[in-house]
Amino acid sequence: MKRTSSSLFxxxxxxxxxxxxxxxxxxxxxxxxxIQFYFYDDDDSQFSSSRRSRLPVYDEDDDxxxxxxxxxxxxxxxxxDLPLDFLWQSFFENADAANYSIYVHSEPGFVFDExxxxxxxxxxxxxxxxxxVGWGESTxxxxxxxxxxxxxxxxxxxxxxxxxxxxVPLYNFSYIYxxxxxxxxxxxxxxxxxxxxxxxxxxxxxxxxxxWRKGSQWIALVRSHAxxxxxxxxxxxxFKRLCKRRPPLDASKGTQNLxxxxxxxxxxxxxxxxTLLAMHDLEGELERRTVTYTSWIQSATNMETKSWHxxxxxxxxxxxxxxxxxxDIDNVYYETEHRREWCHSNAILVPCFLFARKxxxxxxxxxxxxxx
Length: 372
Hints:
Blueprint: H1 5-38, H2 49-52, H3 62-65, E1 71-77, H4 85-93, E2 100-105, H5 139-152, E3 157-164, E4 168-169, H6 173-181, E5 186-187, E6 191-192, E7 213-214, E8 220-222, H7 223-230, H8 235-242, H9 256-260, H10 272-279, E9 286-287, E10 292-294, E11 296-299, E12 307-310, H11 320-327, E13 331-334, E14 339-342, E15 344-345, E16 348-349, E17 355-357, H12 361-369
Parallel strand pairs: 1-2, 1-3, 5-9, 10-17
Antiparallel strand pairs: 3-8, 4-17, 6-7, 11-12, 13-14, 15-16
Helix pairs in contact: 5-7
InterPro entries: BC10-like, Glyco_trans_14
GO molecular function: glycosyltransferase activity
Subcellular location: Membrane
């Protein structure tokens, strides 16, 4: 009996579909395996050694390999110029040029020269690959990483201190150099974030909640930790997608504000370095505090809910008594962990803060007149 074309087609069609389904299942299994293999182990949610190996290869014992004069890389995050450059001019004048390097991330195209800064120490210290930075956006941590990458190019840079354009030094160069270089640990303000709803559960496939940390963005890193931050390609993409600032209240949007305000209010630069280092099991190598002092106050406007903002120190508030109070602080209390961090450098009890912010120009001028 002659078979019709339709009877020949049916078995072939079924075979094709079986093949497609099988290939799809294989692809899904391989994808799930790669996610588990590359990102974290199910048992302890730590990076696997295979995933870490994708970072650029450096000498494992880099501190011992380097033979030369160790430097501190001073890395400034600026919106444009450096308004307190005259104070930093005085600071660097008393330093050995072999003990420090300077890097500035400013707006794209900004050049530090005799027309834009009063300090020759900053001439041509700007990054040529800077980006436009927005507060509360992942561009802030991208700018930090650009500074770290530039500073890491010089093997003499052994410590990496991140500063804002409103930061001032509280001590002379020699004291700060010995303090920072005398410690084998990084100074990173880091604590459990239990009170605020900044953690997005959608991060959990890469960032487990128990590794979520919060803290000040003003860090001082040893070289090995600087590399971890500068060349991370796992955690940063997650932050770009899922750690975003909640939009401010907008009266024109009416009831739509209720939906917008339910979004996670995640500030990337307050979580990224802390969380990344926790995921790499490096917290035991940290002094879990910052060396940059900031005073915070709670404020509110008609269009915003209450939020915390840093105090700005002007001429009146930059008095000797206030500066002494800051310099006398020798411990920090972390409420979410019921932890009091006594400030140490190389196991020696020391004042907590080397720098402070935010200072106005007249506040910095008074500081300089006081010989700070």
